[in-house]
Each structure stands twice: as C-alpha cells, then as structure tokens.
Design goal:
Shape of chain A: elongated
Radius of gyration of chain A: 26 Å
Number of helices of chain A: 14
Order of helices and strands of chain A: HHHHHEHEHEHEEHEHEHEHEHEHEE
Distance between the termini of chain A: 83 Å
Largest interface: A-B, 49 and 49 residues
Oligomer: homodimer
Strand order of the largest sheet of chain A: 2-1-3-4-5-11
Chain lengths: 343, 343
DNA sequence: ACCAGGAATTAAAGCGCTTTAAATTGTCCT
DNA sequence: AGGACAATTTAAAGCGCTTTAATTCCTGGT
C-alpha cells in the first residue's frame, strides 16, 4: 500500500508539464500561452518572450492528442502505404514535403501480413485524419466510395471508374505501351509480359501491353505470364521461361520488383541482360536505380503524384471542392542498361 | 454568407457519430457504451448486443484522440526509424507483431532529409507514446538520457556506455569478427573493411574487424576504407580499390547496403564475385536476401531484437522496472553466395 | 479630465472519451 | 415480505488543449 502511494506520488511529481504550468510560471492565462506557442498573432512581444522562456525552462511539449481534440481541425492527412513497396516509400517521402508546405501533417498506417487495408484505414480515421490518401488500394470501388463519406478519399495510382472519387494516377496502359514501342523500335518482336495479378493497376498495364502489341501487328507474339508484385513472382516467371526452353528476346514486367526477380532468375541461369534478353520494369523505384540493376523502367513521377494528391486533399478540405476529380499524369520511359537490340 | 451557413449545417449533419449518439440510440449511458466497446466486463449480454448493433448501424468509430486523452494510459510505443533502411523496415514489422501481442500499438516517426532525429522524437512524444523505441539513434548519450526522463527510452542496435539506458543490440564487434574468422578459414589474408562512418555502431564494427585481424596475426593487412551506410559509399569504395589497382581478396562492408554498393562497383568493372573477390555485409536485410545479390552477411536477429525491445518497454511501463538493462544478442553468420576461397 | 477605440488578456465552455464512486436493479434467503 | 448481496448501470468529474466572447488596459484626441 505504502509503496503504491509513494510510487504514484513520484509519478505525479515528474508528470509532463501542462499548458497550465507554463501559464502559472509566467503569471498569465493558459489562453495566452496557447496563442504564443502556436504563433498566433495577439500576445505582446513581452508576453511572447516570457512564455517562450518558461516553456523552454519547463521542457514543455504540447500534447498533441489534447490539441487535436480541442481544435475541430487536425490538419492531418492519413496515408495508407504498403510497407513492402519501395515505390510507396518514395511516394511517402514526397508526400511529406508536399504536406509540410501546405501546413499539414502525415499520419501513416501500413499494411502488413497481420494488418489489412481495412484495419489500416480505420486507424487513420481513429486518429482523425481529415483526408485519406490511399496508395494503390485494392478494395472495391464501393468500399472506397463509402469511406469517402467519412473523409475525402484520394486514390493514388489506381484507376477508378467515372468520377466517383479523387484520383491521381499515371496512364498505366500508355506507360507499358511506351516500353513496347521502344522495344519494337529496337527490333524486338518476341516480347513477353509478366503479369501483376488481379488488381486494377495490373489490368491496365496488361491491357497496355496487349494494345501496343496489336498496334504493331504482333498479335501472334502476345504472351502473358502469371505473376504478382513481388521479386519471387519475377523469378518464377524467369524460371518458367527458361524451363520452356524458348526465351523471348524481351521481357516486360508489371513492376520493378517483379522485373528484378526476372533479372535474378536470368542471371542465375547465366543468361546475359541485355545481351540475350532485354528486361523492363515499371515504377522507377529505388531498387531499379541501383547501379547493379540499372533497370529500364517507366517513371510515374512520384513527386508530381504526391504533390497532386496533397493538392487534391487541400482542395477538398480548405477550398470546398466537392466534385471528384481525376488527375492523369503522363508516364515517361526511363531508359537504362537492361534493354538493347535483340540478339 | 448564406452559403457558408448552409455548408456548416451540412457538415454538422454528417459529423461522425459520437459515443453519445450510440448511447442515445440504445437508451443507455455513454459509460455503458464505452465499456461494451472496449470489451470490459460489466455490461450484460443484452446491453452488449444492442450497443454493438447500434454502433454498427451508426458506423461508429472511436475517436482515438479523445480516448487517449481521457485514459491516462495510451498503450502506444513510439518508434523512430530511418525510412531508408531496409533493416529498419524489417524491424518495424517484427515490432508490430510483438507489440500487438502484449496489447500495445505502434506510432512511427521517420526521419527524412527534412526531419531530423529531434523532430521525429518530439512527434512521438507529442502523440503521447509511453515509451520510445529508437532504432539506431545517432544522438549523443546525454541527449538520449535526458529523453529518458520523459518516457522510458529503449535504444536498439547501438551500444550505450554503462547502464544509462535500456539497450537491445547484438555484439557487433563479435559479428564482424565471425566474418573475418570465416574468411581467414577460407584462406583469405588480404581482407579490407569498408567503414560505416562515425556512429557508435560503425565504431564497434570497425573494432571487431581490427581485433579479429590482429587475432589472426594479420595486422599488416588491416585496411579500412572510408564509407557510410549507403550503396553509394560502397560503390565509391569499390572504385577506390579498383583505381588503386590492388584488389584485396575479400571485402567486408559496414552493412548490407554498403556491401551491395561494393558488389555493384565490382560488377561494373567485370570483377567476379566470389571468384576474384569475396564480399560480405552486415544486417541480413531484405536486399541481401534477394537472389541476385545473395549476399553473405551477419544476422542481427531482427525478430529477437524487436521482441526484446518491446519486452523492455513493457517491463518499464507495466512491471515497474527502473534500472536500465542491456540485452546483447549473439549475431550469427549467414553464409550465402558472395564468399569463397581466395583466387 | 474623460472617452472612444484598438490592443492585449482572460474566463469559461467545450472537444469525445474514460473512469470512479454511487445509484439502481435483480436475486435469493430467511 | 424484508433484506443482504451481487450484478448492472450511470452521473459526473476530468484528460490538456483551443477558441470565443467578454474584459481589462492603453492610447491619443478633445
């Protein structure tokens, strides 16, 4: 009993200082302190200085949960990312800067094996994000639209049918088309595509491949290998090609991770890239830029996407826009080492 | 004027439901609803069901900021990570599971170019993290110790002198020693080390290299190349070696990222690994496992570290431990493709 | 000396939830 | 029927901050 009491007292003694403590020390009201600390105009210079000093002396640090609760606004944007994606990592960084510029803060929630999309989004909402920026969400449109009722939803990187939600994305089919065009220009005809699974993004890119192949009259060479968004899938695809014994002259993968898997699979079998086979990815993520891969890929303009996404959120939040808007950016080819003319 | 009023009314109308709304709908008090929603024993089964139903109907979602504010506890652990480090990404994932198991939640804060360690930690504190788990912090001990006054600090992966703080780490010098031992056993004598900069971790690993070399009587071959924790540094080091024209038979790098840079630099110059030069890294991070690298490295046991870190936090928070404790795990060699006997 | 008007300051009412102590209800004996 | 006791339920007091409306304090002009 004694002990518990003592402990409690000790704990109370070293409790973090509150606004009230700072106010008491200076001899002003908590209102004034609050104003000074947030840099709101009003308090006199003298008060300002004294408050600042007292706050520093006490080691005062604002309690964000209380601020958020008290102010109707939170100025926080919730971002859902897939922690495994290097491309998302890039995006997050740009989102950070973009948000900072307009005075917003980011709260991240990441999906892992144990936390699915729904949980991730709920956390964001529970923390009072004012808008949700979802990077490549896989949930059905209805679900996303329902979410939009609770907070403006900005979907990044994925197509959504007909003006239901704010979307920022690149024209994925066009991007893949550009790769195919370039490969064809280099003289390739046997161009195989490694698929990215059943998401909307994957569908678009696959379509881009098919369309481009047809445009060049290469219908007969259209070949799509099952896959997903991981290195493992790329490697499997490569093994599959090798086992089949008839390597195409070029392989285009759903994304960079998959492409890197393809690269690995080929390397292991001693197939030279781009000597024997050309390989291209999609996203221009960190990994693709590593000099050991130096992968030819398509840039989605991560920075621009981040900027537009934040801008969209701000428009909804601060400028009263209510109609959904879609921003489609043009992807552009980033030619690096992994493609060349056919063998 | 009219418009603004109207808009405000509309906004108010679709405001998210509060505990009170759920309570009103069922005809009980907010207290009961709170209890039910948190799964606390007390409310009858009948009440329980009705509350759950009402909450679902209304689409109620708890406002975390309010909960946190109201409960003295937050059950949140603040984690500071470097978003660029694949090893940290691994750790975070394990931390997530470990925390979840003991009923804690994680709030992440990442340093980027624009956000330094201090800011990151302040955010964590502002969100009322009860303890801080710092992954490889670079701040001086004093700063960290000061922090410990505000919330228990658990330092992960870095040595801290003499019982000032909770620390979970692996014996880095030993780890590097193991690599050197293995290389020597394979017959290597000219083993060069690519340094990791001036942090404490780097110091330990460098020492491990030096000590091991001396132990094998290879003092004359000790050679440390300047570097840091990036791929770029590794690549620079490789170029340096190549320019000097006298390649060692083995290169040990500060971490996997740096080692991958070395690999890239050597590959570009057409030097075969492990044929002509053996290369080893440290951390056993994601990248090192990619089959295209298949890098020999040292595992720090990310999962175990995460587990111990969370355990340490819980002990401080819930079990009243106050003396700092250090957990030093034994690293273990992960032999993959990149080392072999000397040429 | 007095007052209008602006500048600085503050009292007080929440924000949406948790939690404690007290009130209410129900059950089972005697 | 009356009462003891346990099972439920709830009123009300915060949590630490923001914000609005009101108050106080200064000016300078008359």
């Amino acid at each position: 009993m004694e002990d518990v009491g003592a402990e409690r007292r000790r704990a109370a003694a070293k409790k973090r200082p509150r606004l009230e403590d700072v106010a008491a020390r200076v001899g002003v009201s908590t209102a004034s302190v609050s104003l000074v600390l947030r840099g709101v105009a009003g308090p006199s210079e003298r008060t300002r200085q004294r408050v600042l000093k007292a706050a520093a002396d006490l080691g005062y640090q604002v309690d964000r949960t209380a601020s958020l609760l008290a102010s109707r606004r939170t100025r926080m944007l919730g971002v859902m990312v897939d922690v495994h994606s290097p491309f998302h990592a890039d995006l997050v960084e740009y989102l950070h800067s973009a948000a900072e510029e307009v005075g917003y803060d980011l709260v991240l929630s990441t999906q892992t094996r144990t936390r699915d999309e729904r949980t991730a989004v709920e956390t964001l909402l529970a923390f009072r994000s004012e808008a949700l920026i979802l990077l490549g969400p896989t949930a059905p449109v209805d679900t996303l639209a329902a979410l939009d009722g609770k907070a403006p939803v900005i979907v990044v990187g994925r197509r959504i049918e007909e003006g239901q939600l704010d979307v920022v994305r690149t024209a994925d089919d066009d991007g893949v088309g550009q790769i195919v065009d370039r490969l064809v220009a280099l003289g390739h005809r046997e161009i195989t595509y490694v698929d990215g699974g059943k998401g909307v993004i994957a569908t678009d890119r696959r379509r881009g491949y098919r369309t481009a192949m047809r445009r060049h009259g290469l219908d007969a060479h259209i070949k799509v290998l099952r896959g997903d968004n991981t290195e493992a899938a790329g490697e499997r695809a490569a093994r599959h090609l090798l086992d089949a014994g008839e390597l195409p002259t070029a392989v285009v993968a759903f994304n960079d991770q998959s492409a890197i898997g393809v690269l690995a699979g080929l390397a292991r079998a001693g197939v030279s890239v781009p000597g024997e086979v050309s390989v291209a990815g999609y996203d221009d993520d960190r990994l693709s830029r590593l000099s050991c891969f130096d992968l030819t890929t398509v840039s989605q303009g991560a920075e621009a996407q981040a900027r537009y996404a934040v801008a969209a959120a701000v428009e909804r939040l601060d400028e009263g826009r209510t109609e959904p808007r879609e921003v489609v950016l043009a992807p552009h080819l980033v030619v690096r080492r992994t493609i060349a003319g056919p063998r």
